[in-house]
Amino acid sequence: MKIENWFKNKDYKEGVEILKSSSSAKARIISLLERGKSNRNMALLIAELRKLKKVNLPQSKAQITSATKPKKVNLPLQDVSVQQEALRAKQKDESSSNYFKKIRYGELPPELKIRFRQLKDLFYDFCDLKYQLNDLPDELEEEALAIILKMEDLDQQRDVIWKELDHWQNFKTKLPTATDNDYSDWGPKKLYAKKASLNSSISKMNKRLKKWNEEIDLLKDKAAIKKKRQQISRTEKNLHKNKIDLQKIETLL
Cα dist. 151→36, 49, 76, 140 in Å? Predict the structure, then answer.
């Protein structure tokens, strides 16, 4: 696949293969990208392929004379900008309706109504950042990475609130929204050790929850179903606490 075509769909695995086929690809970067897709790795891949794309540009493109350059068409920029903003606002509202349609706002307790409104703000902020990223010129790689990292942070915040809302929908009990643990006085070594421990616990809990959710679909006895649901609810609360603590630690590192 040509690099130009890759930018149309941006398939992560295909992009890594294209980069690996280049003689100028750095082994360290390839090794990092082969660990798997993440927002950070995707940004790195895009940046590297943009560099490679520039290197592979035909020389004739760089030698276009003023006589052969196409004439610029002066568009009414203000009108275009207003029209674009209106279109984007409509797109965001339509996406928002689909994104939140499963939540019955009127049935939420007061605390979760506040969280729901926070989630909507995060959703619109995320959309705005996505538009900013799409509007950036290819050469502004550092700015693009900064936006992607902001999007990653917003996405993590959205995930936490969604867990709280989903838990209420499923169990009619509230997940904790804070923990008493304070890591502000911890040093980097201790923080990294705790982060690793939390990630391990989160991974194990997620596996248990997946197993239990599969098992509950096979149960017929009402008492057994109730017991399993209570087990799932307790574990989800502990999992949520771990995620809150993990966010605290990540802000300190």
Answer: 18, 21, 31, 17
Contact of 236 with 209, CB cutoff 8 Å = yes
If you count them, how many residues does the chain have?
253
Phi-psi region of 58 (alpha: psi -120 to 50; beta: other; left: phi over 0): beta
**pLDDT per position as a tens digit, 185-197:** 999 899 999 999 9
Q: How many CB atoms lie within 10 A of CB 137?
A: 8
Residue, of 5 and 218, whose pLDDT is higher: 218
pLDDT in tens, 52-82: 877 665 544 444 444 444 555 554 555 556 6
Q: What is the DSSP string of 75-94?
A: --HHHHHHHHHHHHHHHHHH
Buried b (16+ CB within 10 A) or exposed e, 204-235: ebeeeeeeeeeeeeeeeeeeeeeebbeebeee
Are 126 and 155 in contact, with CB atoms under 8 Å apart? yes
Task: Compute the mean pLDDT over every residue in the chain, rounded to the nearest whole number.
Answer: 81
d(CA 153, CA 164): 17
For residues 128-135, average pLDDT: 85
